[in-house]
Design a protein that fits this description.
The protein is of the alpha/beta class. About 60% of the residues lie in helices and about 10% in strands. It has a single domain, classed as TIM Barrel (Alpha-Beta Barrel). An 8-stranded parallel barrel has the order 1-2-3-4-5-6-7-8, surrounded by 8 helices.
């Protein structure tokens, strides 16, 4: 039986000095006043290029949650993780391409550069992308609106929305599709899997559709493309099942990275402001129920689904291992993978690895100014997920006490 209480395994890769630094960081994040001040000041300090801001960030929150500013820096972290049988999902942490079409083309080339690099490293089987990195947000919104006003299946609504666009925007969308195809084509050739990140609900439909199209092309014999399904949405368990039916019908393998979600506060606020029903589950219990049901659904259909259980919830990870045991399947089944964010839930990651599970850390990298949005989400997530900061802090303190003895 796997235990997530073993802090010796969880923090074996961290020095005592690094653990003390993490203790200070999580203590600070546990203070609502300090957190609020930090979240207000950090983006402005970076924007205004205030002295010592980058150095302070680099030595604190950046070092905790990010692999490095460059690929060589990140490789040092990946190599350290490999020593403990932990793999890496590499994420070029730039969100939203600047400079219009030229910026989107540049972001695409950067994603391809990451794939090329990952292919030279045997510990990096996955890389993560955001469609907002190479597509105009307003175009995604327009496509989503068009799909929501159309009827039928996801793909029928997608085709209808595309037809309703003016010709210049249809051409623009084709360039988005071409960029994603170029990324997936490179990934298929280099045998690296591409995880397409989830986005806000008001741009998610076209992201789902275009990702399904890529699966239909590249997931015939192996898993190249994964969609990310956020179970804190009340409609996503049904969407997972519909995606499975589409995969069966079209004869491709469904890649599903299942997460709870990252935009809860923003989603609820927008729904209230615009007076539409919130897409978010009514409570945590509902989210947990659907997440665990999604885990069970995927593990029941492993012939046609490859699942990444991307969760910081101990019970959900334990459930996945128990289901594998019940079915007499290996913990490192080729269609089952576990993942947690770098800098969080080491007690889950490293204890899963110790039990023989295929597990990774989601490892972002990039210039400090570009990964600030990611860092802000991590800080907010640790404060909004009930007990997350306290849990991290408690485990760190427990390990520091163990090392004293």
């Amino acid at each position: 039986m796997i235990s997530f209480e073993n802090t010796e395994y969880a923090f074996a890769y961290k020095t005592t000095a690094a653990l003390k630094k993490a203790r200070f960081l999580f203590s600070s994040m546990g203070s609502p006043l300090l957190l609020k001040m930090g979240l207000s000041v950090m983006p402005l300090a970076i924007k205004w290029n205030l002295p010592f801001t980058k150095q302070l960030l680099r030595k604190t929150i950046f070092q905790q949650f990010v692999g490095g500013e460059t690929l060589p820096e990140t490789a040092i972290v990946a190599d350290k993780l490999e020593q403990y049988n932990v793999q890496v999902i590499l994420d070029y942490g730039v969100e939203g391409g600047g400079d219009g079409e030229q910026g989107f083309d540049h972001a695409t080339q950067e994603f391809i550069r990451v794939i090329d690099y990952a292919a030279t490293q045997h510990n990096i089987p996955f890389m993560s992308i955001k469609v907002t990195g190479f597509s105009r947000f307003e175009l995604l919104e327009k496509m989503d609106e068009g799909m929501n006003s159309a009827a039928g299946t996801l793909m029928k609504r997608y085709v209808q929305a595309l037809e309703d666009l003016p010709s210049n925007e249809r051409d623009e969308w084709q360039r988005v599709a071409d960029r994603l195809k170029k990324i997936c084509e490179t990934a298929a050739t280099k045998k690296i899997a591409v995880l397409v990140d989830a986005e806000e609900t008001w741009i998610q439909d076209p992201v789902d559709a275009i990702t399904m199209l890529m699966m239909d092309i590249y997931n015939k014999n192996s898993i190249v493309v994964y969609n990310t399904i956020q179970l804190y949405r009340h409609d996503r368990l049904q969407f997972l099942k519909a995606s499975y039916e589409a995969a069966i019908e079209r004869n491709f393998l469904l890649g599903a990275k299942i997460v709870r979600g990252a935009y809860m506060e923003k989603e609820r606020k927008r729904a209230a402001e615009k007076n539409y029903p919130s897409p978010i589950q009514p409570n945590k219990e509902s989210s947990d129920r659907d997440y665990n049901a999604a885990v069970e659904f995927c593990i029941t259909h492993l012939d046609n689904i490859a699942v990444i259980v991307a969760s910081h919830n101990e019970q959900s990870n334990l459930l996945a291992t128990q289901l594998l045991d019940q079915k007499n399947l290996a913990h490192n089944h080729p269609h089952v993978h576990f993942s947690q964010l770098y800098g969080m839930s080491d007690n889950i990651t490293f204890n899963l690895a110790k039990s023989g599970c295929s597990v990774s850390k989601y490892l972002p990298f990039g210039p400090i100014k570009d990964v600030v949005p990611y860092l802000m989400r991590r800080a907010q997530e640790n404060s909004s997920v009930s007990g997350q900061t306290g849990r991290e802090l408690g485990l760190i303190k427990k390990e520091l006490e163990r090392r004293k003895g």
